[in-house]
Specification:
The complex is a heterodimer. Helix content of chain A is about 40%, strand content about 10%. Chain A is built from 15 helices and eight strands. In chain A, the strands form three sheets. Chain A has a three-stranded antiparallel sheet. By secondary structure, chain B is α/β, with parallel strands linked by helices. Chain B has a single domain, classed as Rossmann fold. In chain B, strands 2-1-3-4-5 form a five-stranded parallel sheet. The chains are: A alpha+beta, B alpha/beta. At the A-B interface, helix 5 and helix 6 of A face strand 1, helix 2, helix 3, helix 7 and helix 8 of B.
């Protein structure tokens, strides 16, 4: 629990530094024919792919020579579907995109529509949205940590120990959301112009109790992971993503911050209530799996601090700035376009929307979602070659992809 | 879509031998007991419902207590839980995995996407329900269903397995769902539950065990008495939205989890 436990374990030179600069389009026809080259399909149904994701691995013995990712097993045509529906009907659909943090998805789509329609959000609603986003970040990172523990083969105590512990904490956050919205997830609580459900009486006190408890547990997990030699051995120097490559691939969020880039939209392009509070951005210089793990665990602690500030500072006032929704075609957009980007637990989630004007006023003419997970997956052909096959799930798990968002 | 089960036959030909029927019946009872209480789940988790499937196996709801554990390979499993949207690209893979599962096997369609496709039904890349590809035994509605609802569905499947092995049709479910939900109430009560007072302090939460079993949330015997839960929790629950289905969930009595 000491402050030193947050420090990174002293590191030797990363073992896989020589593996950088791999070519994802490598032609294997010139490969040594005597070598034991083999093609292995991983997925689309595999418990460690975090959804339905397929990797084609070319192996030389146990070493990966080339990796080809395939996406699209969960393509649900969300963008096209949203063009068919009206602005009001969009919120419950985008909940299912990034199903580990639905709150930030709702925010993104409603912020884009508000920018297009020119609707102001009241200050109370902005605070509530920010608070929900920060609590959702804790829940999302807890789910990542739990599945990462399974990916590591139960390095933190064997089997599913970490999974059991993290899910226990996550349930408490879902309980708090359930009190506000009535749903465990897929909340449908954001609407155009503000929020749909107000905070019930006595909720703030429960938030404080729950977050105090989770904070003490996270300290424990941080110490468990950084002092566990198996955890450190399997993550340090594994899957190094250099800063330049991360920027080139458009990777954002904790993965970019773990590569040493000090970039966080909550601080750099503040939205909602982030301009009124100070976000301490967590970075790590090395860009390996351990850095990504540490950044996420520290972000949880930072989110707990922010949530406590926000829940105390929620101002009085209305929670919705627009008229109550009476019919689905209530909001009419003029011709125009809007792009809104915000920081989700996985990175920059962009929503680009074009208003149709007279002919198609009540629904988006075109809608494009920029998912952070898809960009994170695009790093796999660079990260995997040179590593052994057992490192695959660790590297994939450290990227925290959500296929519902990547495939849309 | 109704599933035609008339060709399913679970009677071994040896059973018709004279004198063997008594022994065979006893053995069959034993096998039925084993089969119903070790329904291993193959998680065909594609999207959101998969997270609730994980939550069912995790600490609060704990599907282990009825012998249900999640396995990663179809060859060890009895039940395929289809959790999430099945796309045209994914459906042949689901079918292939279903064929790899050993008989007797069962299927649960979890969530509205697996049942009918939900609002993705008309999308070009989504199939309208998994029962267009494989036979489904139990449907669990919801988007996504709560872990308790999945547990209730598994209990329902146990009833069906018992009935089918006895050579009968599974009885129609006449009970209100609350009764099944009461059986599956989580061992750690939710915040919405009257069991859990909003006045619980951090010290009390940490009191019974720190990295322990979460038993602190149930009132430990040595914990100081809490405020009466009824008045305090009313302030919360009355303001919560009415569409919550979890209001129907009732926690088990204190005796059942006092040992946690």
């Amino acid at each position: 629990m000491s402050a030193s436990s947050a420090a990174r374990p002293s590191s030797a030179a990363p073992a896989s530094a020589a593996r950088l600069g791999v070519d994802p389009h490598r032609d294997l026809s010139d490969y040594d024919p005597e070598a034991d080259l083999m093609v292995l399909n991983m997925g689309p149904q595999h418990p460690s792919t975090h959804g339905v994701f397929r990797l084609k691995l070319h192996l030389d013995g146990e070493t990966i020579v080339r990796a080809v990712p395939y996406v699209g097993y969960l393509h649900r045509g969300v963008e096209k579907l949203l063009e068919e529906l009206t602005f009001v009907q969009a919120t419950p659909i985008v909940d299912k995109n990034d199903y580990v943090s639905p709150m930030t998805n709702e925010q993104a789509i409603n912020m884009a529509f508000e920018a297009l329609l020119g609707i102001e959000v009241p200050r109370r609603a902005r605070y509530m949205r920010t608070l929900f986003a920060e609590m959702q970040r804790i829940a999302s990172h807890l789910l990542w940590l739990s599945t990462f523990g399974i990916d590591m083969g139960g390095a933190l105590g064997g089997g599913t120990t970490l999974f059991m512990h993290c899910f226990r904490e996550r349930e408490w956050i879902l309980d708090l959301f359930e009190l506000v919205t009535g749903a465990r997830f897929h909340y449908n609580t954001h609407t155009i112009g503000g929020n749909r459900h107000d905070i019930p009486a006595g909720w703030a006190k429960q938030v404080h109790t729950t977050l105090d408890l989770i904070a003490s547990r996270i300290d424990e997990y941080l110490e468990l992971s950084t002092t566990n030699s198996i955890f450190v051995a399997r993550t340090r120097g594994v899957g190094i993503l250099p800063k330049e490559l991360a920027l080139e691939l458009g990777i954002t969020g904790p993965i970019l911050r773990a590569s040493g880039v000090d970039h966080d939209l909550r601080r750099d392009a503040p939205f909602h209530a982030y301009d009124e509070i100070e976000v301490k951005v967590q970075t790590e210089p090395d860009g390996d799996c351990l850095s990504r793990a540490l950044v996420r665990v520290r972000e949880m602690k930072e989110s707990i601090r922010l949530s406590k500030l926000l829940v105390d500072g929620i101002p009085e006032g209305p929670i919705c700035g627009a008229r109550p929704i009476k019919n689905p075609t209530q909001f009419k957009a003029k011709e125009g376009q809007a792009y809104v980007a915000l920081e989700t637990p996985r990175g920059e989630l962009g929503t680009y929307v074009i208003g149709g004007g007279k002919n198609k006023a009540a629904s988006p003419y075109r809608l494009k979602i920029r998912p952070p997970s898809l960009h994170a997956l695009s790093a796999l052909p660079y990260l995997l070659p040179g590593h052994s096959i057992s490192d695959t799930v660790v590297i994939l798990g450290s990227l925290d992809p959500i296929m519902g968002e990547a495939d849309r | 879509m109704a599933v035609d089960e008339s060709d399913r036959n679970y009677e071994h030909p040896l059973y018709s031998m004279p004198g063997l029927s008594v022994a065979a019946t006893s053995v069959d009872k034993l096998l039925t007991w084993g089969a119903t209480n070790s329904l291993w789940v193959f998680a065909m988790a594609t999207s959101c419902c998969g997270i609730e499937l994980m939550a069912t196996a995790a600490s609060r709801v704990d599907a282990d207590r009825m012998g249900t554990i999640i396995r990663g390979t179809p060859r060890q499993c009895d039940v395929m839980v289809v959790a999430g949207t099945i796309t045209v690209k994914m459906a042949p893979r689901v079918l292939k995995l279903w064929e790899q599962m050993p008989e007797p096997k069962w299927c649960i369609a979890m969530g509205s996407c697996a049942i009918s496709g939900d609002f993705y039904r008309d999308i070009y890349s989504v199939i309208p329900g998994i029962d267009t590809a494989i036979p489904v035994d139990v449907y669990i509605p919801g988007c996504p269903p709560n872990p308790e609802q999945l547990m209730a569905g598994l209990i329902r499947l146990q009833e069906k397995v018992r009935a089918v092995r006895g050579g009968e049709w599974a009885p129609k479910d006449e009970r209100p769902e609350t009764e099944a939900m009461q059986k599956t109430a989580p061992s750690i009560p939710r915040l919405l539950s009257a069991e859990r007072s909003p006045d619980v302090t951090l010290a009390q939460l940490l009191g019974a065990g720190n990295l322990g079993l979460g038993g602190a949330l149930n009132r430990a015997a040595d914990a100081p008495p809490l405020a009466a839960p009824q008045e305090t929790s009313d302030a919360i629950t009355t303001q919560a939205p009415t569409e919550t289905s979890e209001g129907a969930v009732e926690s088990p009595s204190e005796d059942e989890h006092a040992d946690a």
